[in-house]
Amino acid sequence: xxxxxxxxxxxxxxxxxxxxxxxxxxxxxxxxxxxxxxxxxxxxxxxxxxxxxxxxxxxxxxxxxxxxxxxxxxxxxxxxxxxxxxxxxxxxxxxxxxxxxxxxxxxxxxxxxxxxxxxxxxxxxxxxxxxxxxxxxxxxxxxxxxxxxxxxxxxxxxxxxxxxxxxxxxxxxxxxxxxxxxxxxxxxxxxxx
Length: 193
Prior knowledge:
This protein is an alpha/beta fold and 193 residues long. 39% of the residues lie in helices and 23% in strands.
C-alpha cells in the first residue's frame, strides 16, 4: 500500500496574513492576522531591540506573520500571502540585489530581510507580498483588517523590549498633575502642595 505524504501539493494550502507595525519613542510593536482553510490566528508583540525604524518594524511584522503561520500550521503550508501597508518593505524583500548604501544604512532591515528569506527557503514555502492601503476610512475587509492590526501593534508598542537580559523599554510615565481644587488654590497663591 503506497501512501501519500501529508505535505503533497494536493494537501498544502495558502495562508493569508495581514501585518502591521507601530514605531515610536516608546518602542516598536507588530501585529498579525492570519487565516487559512483550517482557521484563524491573531497575534501581536514587541519588536526586537535592534529595531530602530518604522521600516524595520514593518519587516519584523512580516517575519512574525510568516513565523506564526509556519508555527501554527506547520508543513501543511504551501505559501503565505502577506498583505502589508509598507511599500518599502515589499520592495526590499522582492529586490534581488540590495545596494551597498542601503545595506549600510539599514542593518536591522537587512537582518530581518535575511531572516524572512531564510525562513521561507527553509520551510519550502512560497511568499507573495501584496500592498494594502493603510489608514483608509472605507469599510472594506482589507481596511478593517489593516486597522485591527494597526491598533494591536500600537498596543504592543508600549511594552517593547530589547534583547534577552536587557531591561524592558517602556513608555515613559507622564508626570501626574494634581488638578484638585486645593492644588489649584495653592498654585494661585504661589505655593506647591
